[in-house]
Structure formats: C-alpha cells, structure tokens
Amino acid sequence: MKRGFLAIGALLAGVAAPELRAQQSAGDAAPPIEWRRGLVYARRDALELALDFARPASADRALPCVLAIHGGGWRQGRREDVHRVVERCVNAGFAAAAISYRLLPEHRFPAPWEDVCAAREFLAAHADELGLDPERCAAIGFSAGGHLALLLGTHDEGTEPGRPRVRAVGNFFGPTDLSASELPERAERLIADFLGASGDAAAPLRRAASPRAHVSAGDAWVRSFHGTDDALVPHAQATALHEALRAAGVPEALHSRIGAQHGWAREELEADLDRLLVRWRSELRGGGLHPLRLREDFESASEDGWWLSDAAAWRITGESGARALEIVAKRSSYAPKHRSPLHLAVRKDLAVESFVLDVDLRSTHASYGHRDLVLVCGWQDAEHFYYVHLGQQADATSHGVFLVDGAARRRLEGERGAGTPWGERWHRARLVRDVESGAIELYLDGVETPHLRAVDRRFLRGCIGVGSFDDTGRFDALRLYAAPGEAK
Question: Which domains occur in the chain, in start order?
Fold first, then answer.
C-alpha cells in the first residue's frame, strides 16, 4: 500500500512510533523513566504549546537531550505519537522530549519551524532544572517531523546570534528541497498548502523552507534514513541533501532502505533507530559533535602545518583534485627512542581533548600479516602518545590501540575485531576520543560497531596525526571536529 504525507500521521500513530518497543534485552525490565508531561514551552496568543520530557530516573548527571518531532504532513499528529521514540532514547541513556507544534490549516510556514526552535530554546533555558546538557542536543523527526528537524540543524538565517542549535539530526524520510522538480503532484499540493502560496509567488518561501538551501559548514551532523521506492518524498531528496552536506564538510550518513516506501515495518524502523542511537551514544554522549577544526584535502600540495618524522619519506602525490598525503618509502631515517611507529605526520599546532577525526586511508604496501596504517591521538611528544594500529591481522603487536609512554609501545586491553581488510582500495576511518570516559574508538567503512576500542585516561589532551609503523600508504579527506582549544 502506498503511504503518503496525509497518511503519515496514521503511519506514525499506528505502526512506527507507538509500537516501537522500549530498547531492552529479552526478559529484562525497562529501567524506570522519570516523566514530566505538559511542560508549556511557548504561548501563541491563546494557544499553549507543550512538550513531554523524560530522562532515566537513576541518572545523576546532566545528559545529552534528543528532541523528538512527530510527522503528519504538517497537518496532523500529536506529541504522544513519538512517546515510544522518547522511551527508546531514554533507555539508551539520553534525556528526550516529545513536542507539539502548530499545524495546518490554521498555521502555515514558518509557524512550525518557529515552534521547534522555541522548544529547543526552552530546553536550553531550563537545562539545570531538567538535568540535561544544553550543548549536546539532537533532533529526530519522521517525514514532516524530519523536515523540521533538518531545518533546526541547518537554518540560521534571521535567527538571533547565540540562539541554541542542535548538534545532530536524525532524519527519517523527510523532504529536504521543496523547490525540487521531481516532487510528485500530491507532495506539491501539500507543500502549497504548507506555504500558503504556489507558482512564482511561492519561490522565496520554498527556498526558506528547504533544509538543503541552508546547508553550510558547521551545521548539525545529519543521519538520514530513506526508502529507495518512496513515492511521496523521492529518495533523490535525501541524496541531494547529503551531497550538499559533504560538499560543505558537514559529517553525514545516508542509510537507504532498498525497496522501502514512505515508512517501513516496525522491526526495521526499530533497527534503524537503534543504529542511530548507537552512533549518538559515541558522538553525543561521548562529547563529540564539535565544530570543524581542521579540513585537509592536501590540494595545496604543501605539508605546511605537519610535523614529519622523516620528511624524505612523505610526499603530496596525485593530480589536482585527487591529491593525498603519502608515505612513499618503507624505510625511514627516523629513529625513535622507544619502539614505536617510524612514519608519523602530526599536527602539532592543534591540541584537542574530545574529538572526532574522519579520514580516508589506503595501504599501498603488498599484503602481509602486519600490513598497517596508524592514526595518532593524545600526542604530547615523540615519547608520549596513543596510536591506533590498523593491522591486516590481529596479534600481540598488530591491530589494536597502543600506548607509548616513555617506553616501548604496548597494546591497551580492549575490544578488537578481525584485522583490517586492506585490499587495494580506499577505506573511511573515524577515530572518536572521549576524555570523559577515556574511550578511544576506531570505526571503519561506516560499520556501526567499533573496529577497535580501548579505554585510557593518561593523555586527556594532545595532537592528532597519521602514519604507519613501517609501511607505505595514502591519506586524504581529513576532517577534525573538536571543541576550540589553545594551540600547543
């Protein structure tokens, strides 16, 4: 059966949101949840707008918060429709709020967007009372709610300086470009109703209401979930948004449900929501989602800013538009005092605490057991730092998180999967450091569980870098997200 905007309220009320089960192990009781219902966050003439707030009853510290926004074609739906989403967020360790907002036909754009902004401001203003961290807030929405969540994460034109923003967005099949030519006729009718205008007169409103039009560096991180056979909000809406996010250097991920239409079965939706919350546990709860601090594509053909352990072993290689930082020689003249990687490129001008580092990397060495590349963090000096060793095979000295602390490197105890399947292709790595918990996590090629993980709080602030123990390889598309800090 085709599912459209006008049916999405029924979809979320009858299939997706309320029937989402609380996240828990089989046979385990869900942990107690503390609810505060009906908190009025704004008044519009005689209309009171309210939200329902929840957090783990046992929480004893400020928590990151998730704002849950129901769908319904901007015309129908209630905050109760996403209560189960809120419960699932709380059971994953977040505070969360389900909000009401003004609906058609009485209220058109920009009223709903103004309301979600007001709800975000209310949570920030009452952070101490509610026990949440105002700097770590995300928004999640379904269909029309996904559209509003995206606006909250991208649209800052005309807003007051310092207005609270969200740091991450979970967008489930929401429209992203209300000016797009591929929109079906029924979606066009809904958009005209939402904007209160059509034809040429609607053009400025279409742009103002389109998240894609407002994408810029520093926007919220976006994860979208969209069906490839969506007949109401075409899958092309999601791909176009994520192309714009990538071009702006905004962290993003698009998860496409093959063959799915506008919404999908409860079990699949639960799996996607869990996938989102797993990443947010690392990124939001782990102190991530910081501003972009360093963007390096090596197109300047210069190693300026990088300390190189052996300058003769490193080069910027490749043609314009496809350049990369490369280790070109296996041998190195660098002789570390203690056994540790020979090939290192470190950004000594940036000292960071919690961070997320994204980088493309490719091993160019022939295949053998200890074929490797490394990522460096917590760098104090050449005798004190961490490195994450992506080895082809896992053994005592290969493939793990290692510590160099005035002595030969040693592997930290922790989680590790099978070795790195280098092959002859590029891989995308994400290194996440959370100084609060001490976690160092390495994710590879978009897999949701860590490829490598260890916990250590020895070096809580330091520089980042790339390299290899003693092999060759290439690095490109490096993005460092971290809170502002002093140069080292």
Answer: 5-289 (3.40.50.1820), 293-482 (2.60.120.560)
